[in-house]
Structure formats: C-alpha cells, structure tokens
Amino acid sequence: MPKRSSFLTLAAIDLDRSEPTALHRQLYYRLSNAILTRRLVPGTRLPPTRALAAELGVARNTVVNAFEQLLAEGYIEGKVGSGTYVSHALPDDVLQTRAKSSPPTRAISSSAALSKRGAIIASAPAKQWQDSGRPRAFRPGIPALDEFPFETWRQLANKRWRTLARDSLSYGEPEGYRPLRQAIVAYLGQSRGVRCEPEQVIVVAGSQQALDLAARLLLDPGDVVWMEEPGYRGARGALLAAGAKLVPVPVDAEGLRVDIGIRKAKAARVAYVTPSHQYPLGVTMSLARRLKLLEWAARSNAWILEDDYDSEYRYSGRPLTALQGLDTANRVIYIGTFSKVLFPALRLGYLVVPPNLVDAFIAARAMADRQSPVLDQAVLADFIAEGYFARHLRHMRALYAERRAALVDAVNRELDGMLEITSEQAGLHVMARLPQSIDDREVARRAATHNVEAPALSDYALTHLAYGGLVLGYAAVNENEIREGVRRLELAIKNRSNKITKSAFAD
Ligand SMILES: Cc1ncc(COP(=O)(O)O)c(C=O)c1O
Q1: In what helix (H) or strand (E) does residue 262 lie, and over which residues does it extend?
Q2: Exposed site from 203, 269, 271, 503, fewest CB < 10 Å?
C-alpha cells in the first residue's frame, strides 16, 4: 500500500530564488537527493503538483517540469497529474550506502589518494594569483589594465571573426599560429638580442605553462635545480611539481652567485634565472655572471631556464642582451610572456628552445592542452603587425617610469630610514628593504589590515634571509593611489616599531 507523503518533509524543500539555477532544476535536485539519501523511501506518494506548487509558492509548471524529469530518469513512477510514487526499482543497498555517506567536502584528505606529485601540486597556493576588483597598491606583477587599448583590440577581434577561414576552427599547430611566431622572432631579435628561427618558438599559455612543460620534459624526480634565492614562486612550484630537488643559490647586486651554485651543486640539471630583472630583488645580472653561467651550463650539459618576464620595461640605460643571444652551446630555454606587456588574462606567452628540443616541446604542448586559442593568437599577431604593440609599449614605458618615480619619491620622503629601495630602474615593481630588526611578514600582515598589498620578501625565499623587505608593484595603480598606499604603509611599519635608525640597514 503506497504511503502518503508527508507535506512536512516536502515543505522542508527550500528553493533559493537568488541562485542562478532555474527553480524546476532546483526542485528536481532537492527531490532526487531526498530519494537517493532515503529521506523519501520507495513507495512514498508525492503530493499532487498543484498542491506542492502552492506549498512552495511556485508556478505549477515548475513542479510538473521537475516531476517529469524525475519520471524520465526513473526516480519516480506513475503519471504526473494523477499520482506519482518514489520508484521501487532503485536498488536498496545503494540507497542505504548513500544515506550513510557524509556530504563531500573540498578539503583534501588521504582518501583523495593523490599521487606524490599530485600532493605537491595540491599544496601550491594556486589562488594567490587570482585578482578580484580593481588592483590595489602594491600588488606586484600587474600592468596598468585600465590603459590597455581595449577598443583597438575589440576592432581587431571583430575583423578576425569576420575574416577567419573556416578551417581555422579545427585543431591548429600546437606550436602556435605561424604569423604570431614570426612576429615574436622579429620582436625578440630587435629588442632582446634573441637569435632564433620561427621553428624554435612555441606559443604557450603564459610563462607558467612554459615552466611547467620545461620542468616535466627536462627533469626526473630528484634531479637538482639551482633556484634563485629569493626567487619566483611560480617557478618554484612548477619545478617542485616535477620532483626537482631545489638548491637555493643566493642573488647579489650582480645577480645569481654562480660560484656558490657550482660549489653547492656543480652537477645540477637546470638553473632557473631572471637575468634582466631578478624577481623579486630587481637586480640585473652582470655580463660577467652571464658568461660564467653559460660556461657552467655548457660544461655540465645543464639547462638554463631564462625567464624574461618583464624585460620590456627599463627606464634608464640599455637592456643587456638576453642569455639566449649569448649562448653558443644551445643550453638556454628562453621564456617570455604577454602578461606584463598586455594583460595576464590573455594567457599567451612563448618559449624559444634549442633546435634539438623543438619536437619534444611541441609534443609536450600537444599533450598538455593541444594549443592556444587561434583567434587570440591571430588578434595578437595583427596587434603587433599593425604597430599597436610598439605604441602601447612606448606609452606604458613612459607611464611606469612616472609611477615608479612617484613611488620612490614617496618612500624616500615618508619612509626614510624605514624602507630602502634597492632595485634597478626597471620592471613593474621595486624591492624595498626593511631594517634588520623588522619582521617583513609581520609588516605585510599589518599592511593588509590597512588595505595595502605588500608581499614580504621572506615569502619568496626557501631559507632564512639576512634581511627582510617588501615587494611593491606600482604599475597597476595611479600616482594618488601610490601616495596613499605609502601613507598606509607608514602606519603599518610605524605601529610596529618607533625606534628605527638608518644604521639598521647594515649588512
Ligand atoms: C618572474 C615571473 N615570471 C613570470 C611571470 C608571468 O607569468 P605568466 O606569464 O604565467 O602570467 C611572472 C608574473 O608575476 C613573474 O613574476
């Protein structure tokens, strides 16, 4: 004998009108879940659609739609409109187990049974890159998004959609859209002294993918890698995920201490470096160090990962030729990105690899995610070919030079003796050194309470550093925001300690 439904049980079904999911889908989910977890047992009679609609305050059609879906999937039987019951055909033991199981959580537990590699990947703070709302002072690595020539990009994209050949909608070359690779070769040759053929260029989804592919292709678990200390966390994560054993190699005013690297781990497989503008210290690797690094790599058959993430921005003097352009032994894997020159969400970057690695990188790219979207690549190729890229760069260089000057000026005026800017006139951020007595992580935490992002230098290091500092990005915010940010930083540092003298910066 069918049991009558309890209206009380069903009245507990709460539909949420603010959810984007349609009401009939919500009702369907709530009822199917109640059946699967045995809150509604087989044979239970569901209320008439009209009565349930009145009970829930929804249109009758909403209930009819939900019931029809349940009927079609076998959760209920009967006939919508003249009596429906929870199906007897559902296997009882499965329902029992489901009723007992706890609701899924996002917390990663041992039952997630990740591989060792998976556990390393899962421990990386992936969301630290995620931005919401307008960028605040002083988040590093974000360009001036509101200065991006949106309208030009939109027009180029519209034109591409109108003229794109139908066959471009199929799978394309995993190494990237050829005209874009040609444009990259021309640009790198002129501005960075990188010497390569278009065949050596592989378009990727930003530097992060380049680092990930390189780490996976070149390293076995346990292989030793020289990591700049302090250094870029994105690179650290990709290398660790490939099982690398990282050896921190200190950086001084001339860049990576190659001599220390050799002393600590002569037989390393890979060295990760940011020679144009070390991240985060902001120094440029001297020519002598570059040559020494190349010599070591050639002699030990090691690879150099040259991450040239923001070399476009240099506000005094000429940039030094990229390591790739000085390399005569084909040991350098050069990595560039459009995240800083255009915008990070574009997710386009590139690798320039030695000829004997080209096919391996193409295969790795194809395995990872086939290719980058063709339309974006084509629009970018047009943006470069029609001169907009060069114009945007010139405009941004002038703007960032002003913003940098405003930041340096405000820090020197307001925070003299508390913060000392030590990085060169380049890039999108400065390194501001704190007196030795001050814990940079504590200052960063306090800055956050004053609505300022000022990552602590210590967070970029694998070891304990001799001094702390703050990494301050200035490109994404205007001069007023920069001055206001410095005022807030002053509060964050001063609250921490009132007794700071210049001598506190002693080495
Ligand atoms: C050293 C370094 N490399 C690369 C990148 C850029 O990464 P992507 O091209 O994946 O956006 C950044 C961004 O902050 C960086 O600081």
Answers
A1: helix 258-265
A2: 503
**Domain boundary assignment for the chain:** 7-100, 148-388, 390-505
Q: How many CB atoms lie under 10 A from the CB of residue 168?
A: 14
**Ligand 1 mean position, distance from CA 163 (Å):** 33
In this predicted structure, what is the pLDDT of residue 178?
97
Mutate to test the pocket of ligand 1, among 283, 340, 471 (most ligand atoms within 8 A of CB): 340
The pLDDT of residue 129 is 66
Tell me: pLDDT of 176 over 60.
Answer: yes
Phi, psi (5° rounding) for residue 76?
-130, 165
> Using a 6 Å CB cutoff, which residues line ligand 1?
141, 206-208, 232, 234, 274, 279, 307, 309, 337, 339, 344, 349
**pLDDT at position 228:** 98
**CATH 3.40.640.10 applies to domain 148-388:** yes
How many whole angstroms separate alpha carbon 102 and alpha carbon 161? 49
**In sequence order, what are the beta bridge partners of 251?**
256
Q: Which atom of ligand 1 is nearest to the CA of 274?
A: 1
CATH for the stretch 7-100: 1.10.10.10
Q: In terms of CATH, what superfamily is 390-505?
A: Aspartate Aminotransferase, domain 1 (3.90.1150.10)
pLDDT > 90: percent of the chain:
74
User: If you count them, how many residues does the chain have?
Assistant: 507
Ligand 1 centre to CA of 342 (Å) is 13
Residue 499 pLDDT exceeds 70: no
Short-list 348, 329, 319, CA closest to 201: 348
pLDDT for 498 equals 46
